[in-house]
């Protein structure tokens, strides 16, 4: 699907009726993110669809996720890290198969949209590579202070505790679970900072929002 041009719409010429070949939704350092890429990513379920989220909003979220993925992947390639980062391919692929409803349902969805399994494999490989890089180079350095834990307990945990379940447990009783949640939050913040820096250093052009 790559290499189909940089214009927002590519059209077959010399026909009495213009036929849209492919639509570029964004450029990431010259690499196009196509409308079909968004469709493929939706099949893969790389971005969970939130309750009450309409289709247009969901497609925008998927597009932004693909832009971020392309920025991160390009950074790994530039640093020559893509061959040095190992990842669990079977686990990554199985998540996609499960989200799609099984092998048969995944094959049906791909065929229905005109995609090959190889196209999906390449997308999943890139996502798994970036995920493994983040887990190896970002996650180990994360530390949760007592102050951060107490703040999360007061500001996030207590307000969300269901009233019908009685009094909330003390901090020490839920410390391991809250530490994991705070680490996940800090990890997401670090990845977002990394991505924003890559976007500032590079060029991201959005043709569709």
UniProtKB/TrEMBL annotation:
InterPro entries: PrsA_foldase, Trigger_fact/SurA_dom_sf. PANTHER family: PEPTIDYL-PROLYL CIS-TRANS ISOMERASE HP_0175-RELATED (PTHR47245:SF2), PEPTIDYLPROLYL ISOMERASE (PTHR47245). This is SurA N-terminal domain-containing protein. Signal peptide: none annotated. It comes from Thermoanaerobaculum aquaticum. It comes from the Bacteria.
